[in-house]
What does this fold into?
Amino acid sequence: MLLITCPYCGVAAEETELHAGGEAHLTRFGPDSSDEDFTGYLFHRENPKGVHFERWRHVNGCGKWFHAARCTNTLEVFGTYSAQTTEPPKDILDTIRAKRPGFTWRTIA
Amino acid sequence: MSTRVQTQGRLINRDRPVSFKFNGTLLNGYQGDTLASALLANDQMLMGRSFKYHRPRGVVASGSEEPNAIVGLGTGNRFEPNQRATTTEIFHGLTAISQNHWPSLNYDVGIVNNLLSRFLSAGFYYKMFIHPRPFWKHIYEPFIRHSAGLGKAPDAKSRDEDRYEHFYAFTDVLVIGGGVAGLQSALTAARAGAKVLLLEQTAHLGGRAPVDGGTIDGMEPDAWIAKAREELNALPNAQIRTRTMGAGVYDHGYVLGYERLTDHAPEAAGPRHRLWRIRAAQIITATGAIERPLSFAGNDIPGVMLASAVRDYLVNFGVSPGDRTVVVTNNDDAYRTAIALVQAGLKVPAILDARPEGGGALMDEAKALGIRVETGAAAVKVKGAKRVHSVCRGVQAGEGEVLEEIFCDAVAMSGGWSPVVHLWSHCGGKLIWDASQAAFRPDHDRAPTSHDGNPFVVTSGAADGAFHLNDVLQNAANAGKTAAARVGAEKGDAAASSGEAPDEAPLVPVWMMPQGAKKQLRMKAWLDYQNDVKVADVQLAAQEGFESVEHTKRYTTLGMATDQGKLSNINGLATLANALGADIPQVGTTTFRPPYTPISMGAIAGEARGDIFQPIRKTPMHDRHEANGAHWEPVGHWRRAYAFPRKGESVHDAVKREVLATRNSLGLLDASTLGKIIVKGPDAGRFLDMLYTNMMSTLKPGKCRYGLMCSENGFLSDDGVVARIDEDTFLCHTTTGGADRIHAHMEEWLQTELWDWKVWTVNATEQFAQVAVVGPNARKLLEKLGGMDVSKEALAFMEWKDGELAGFPVRAYRISFSGELSYEIAVPANLGRAFWDKLIEAGKEWDITPYGTEALHIMRAEKGFIMIGDETDGTVIPQDLGLDWAISKKKEDYIGKRAQARSHMTDPKRWKLVGLETLDGSVLQDGAYAIADGVNENGQTNTEGRVTSTYHSPTLNKGIAMGLVLNGPDRMGDVITFTNGGNPPKKARIVNPVFFDPEGEKQNV
Amino acid sequence: MSDVALALGGANFDGLVEITELAGQGMVTLRGDLTDNTIVTAVNDVFGVTLPGTRETAFSGDTGALWMSPDEAMLLCSYDKAQDLADDLAAKLADAHALVVNVSDARAVFQLKGTMLREVIAKLAPVDMRADAFTPGMVRRTRMAQVAAAFWMDDASTARVVCFRSVAAYMFGILSMSADDSSAVNHFTR
It folds into this structure.
């Protein structure tokens, strides 16, 4: 059972306190978007064996949504950070680059 | 015969006799006995029968790896099948029954399977039950059902009498296993300053060491163990839990511990089992090793046991499995058994050592005691039926020529030891093949890793492949030091105790005995005792092309019994490797999955049973409804009254009465469960415009508006009335089941997408009790209570107002879900019950009638109002329901708007909402489909719609329904046909969904 | 007001700890930036406490404040004063971006009294209850068995547990079960 630290309240929360919210850093496409953009936003998801960026909510806790950078293979958590950002913070990316040289995720490398 | 001897028995108390029943017979044992040792002491070697062939089986092991001595324990509400006699501590009054036999353990009819065994080879289920096809249903399936299932299921009417609980624990270092390795690791880690919790599955610390002998720091093992326990007990940072098994190791240092509190003392108060939910930074698995059987013909005859088990029964329980025991081995350790037996005054006619050169110091010691040792020898076969009669000796290098028949009543066998790597492997630890021990052991370079990417499991002692006593202690100390250092505890000196024991000569792997055994012998050489898998079965599977160990496991059922292959795994895969001509590491092992041994369902459920099985949400008026005879309906976790039947009244009649009373005079509904979410901020109006399909920002303070919420993919998700409290504050009502979900939905959008919008939300659902006062006399009742003006002018339809009624502080909403004159009154929850009582009392003159959810549903359906969950099912958009009026055309955006423009959503062929009336006034079936012409490509009848809500309307005295129908709104008056649950289809006319008071005259008075 | 009815009417259970449904606990939810000076000052003026830091509590007599999240605090006072204090605070924050709601009726509060309270809580919540990990002065929002809950310790042998009113009977049930006299784990005490 995963243990993920909520960046808002600092609790190292076990999975039963958390709610998984799928892929992070999606760009919303609204009313005037093309079918292709909208379909990508609504349905197309990364499914990496390796580094992934995810949304979690500390639902049985402080209630905050946050992001986690996690390896879906080893379950290593590289870091958690605010959900109110469009890209992972540099220090976390540096950590990942050091630990997983050559990783890519969407447009991030 | 097996019997109690006069000496030894370090775990039993001969001053405390204990009587128990086995298959109805009263037997005696001593306090400290396991059921297996007590049965052996009573010469009850036969303890069960195997699953497939019903072969008679005796106990083979002395611990949790036991595959044969599986019994049903207890009676009635405490009956439990498939319990291991070897891990069951006896107590006064214990009742056990053996399994897999009929009519009795001694005379079993199913043994006929044994005679048919040549037809029941590997994969026989797949081969035998395929053809002819029609036989499946009437012959094969009933046969399989009859013979399937291990043990007896508890009686369906019985109810577990015991209590269970969970416990969350956190520690730096968790040590699993309380043998000398576990104790040494715990001592080292605790001395270094780490917080240590040690779990031991049995009632005793020390593991095998006291049985195997040697000395530690010059002390007898028992003395050293007592000293270690004292030291740990004295340390403030160390704890010990006995009778607690480390059941499984999971991600990020999560471990389940299974504590058996009262299994050995069922009359004791308190929970029976406690499930420890442990989070450990580091885990040391000091889980020891399991001895392997040898594969020779007749190795399953009662009386053939593991050499270590024979020694355990003798030393720990003072029980001899036989007077004359032949020892068969490929290693030195089994000599300890021979020596112990002879020292106890029992006979060992011979030791058959498969190694051409024999063993080391222990062999010399055995020889010095006058024990005959045959090297390069094999047990060709064991003779006997329900008991060992003799061992036929041959040469290991041969094909099974019998050189001598040695008469005996027990056989102690040892094929070497396999480290218990289960807990290392549960969470991904990898193994390497240790050719010198012929065993898999943990590969330290490929340990399971935790959330930080670092290793979190360390193996200790025999579990790490260290077998000599001193190696065990040094290895264990290193493990303790490693784990402690990883949690930053490095003080003190990490010196280990030193162990003295004879040096041992290397073993020689023996996977078949004799190595060239002919087929008749291989057909009687068992690998998996419980599931009756033989050497020949695995070889056949290999011949038939099963190369993967995982496939072979499933095809032959090797290792699929309750013991999960603890004894059979390595022998089985070595046999497979040999048959495939492959190396053992190349074949690999099957996956080790938790739990290590089965744990009770009760422990998993914990406290969740009876009244606290799950949370039941109750409104402030719950008790009043209960007293009023409520017939309850679950809505999410809430309990809502479905109706209030009076004495002698049917639920159906009660619903009818409630509808008519409300329509004609005055009804009362507990609406407290409706969600009430407060949304405030300068961007609150803009935010609600985003959430709802219609415009909320234009709502005036004091007014209410009905709104729809969709998900981002366009589907209708929730509905409710929004009240604007002031310029930047709104109160959003949600459905009963929707409050938490919609509040979470709002927070998700605010926190993750619209985070620069200034909006706060609070879910205030439970702050208020809410009562709908409904019917033509509703206003009169409120006026009678007095305190605020509720007239049409002061509080018009779709308005709200704060005020006071009968002295209660209230917020009154003039909204209606029934089409009647209706007020929903919110009061602080703690006043809800008093307010309800006041309404009931004051409403007597109008025959005030509490009504339930069914009357609510009927009245809304009569008015053509949709219900989330009835008209919607996650695939319905508001446009399907004719709710276009509630979808703003002016707004640039709302959640779901873009999705509703997708081609499938705008398809004119989407089924649309209509009303439906049967031609004969009867009620349509819920969920019934409208039948269209022709069939689809799968030959199924085409459909053109379905019923979403259907009721008998007491108001109109006929069946009414709503449904989604192809081109429905354009087909008013058409008659279509609906399925009717297997009965002749029903004809129904498409009508306007508003059946009652279409102009809304009643609610606007 | 005499008509006030607690969810369980002041239920009580005595076992490993004494469990009492508390009457008279007022609770006010504050949503807003807890580091905003206007908000900190207003709370101090009305409730007499300084808003606490992350996962901390602050008390002054019968008023107090619990940190719930970076933008949410639970303000405590006596039940009778809750509405007035909430109105007062809301008025003071009229020009700030904040939401103040009296939620005194929305919740049930249980007091646990006794030295075994750490064990009783540890049977239900996935929280490290060791004495050096959870101390008076801290508050924890979490899950207890199957429902959301928050708890804090007033002193070494007193804790308060808060849950939604509708599940008060469930909470009382699981607490009582966990506090059964014969179920001591003796993990935190020896």
In short: Residues 1-159 of chain B form a domain with the Ubiquitin-like (UB roll) fold (CATH 3.10.20.440). The longest strand of chain B covers residues 164-176. The CA atoms of residues 706 and 721 of chain B lie 4 Å apart. The mean pLDDT of chain B is 95.
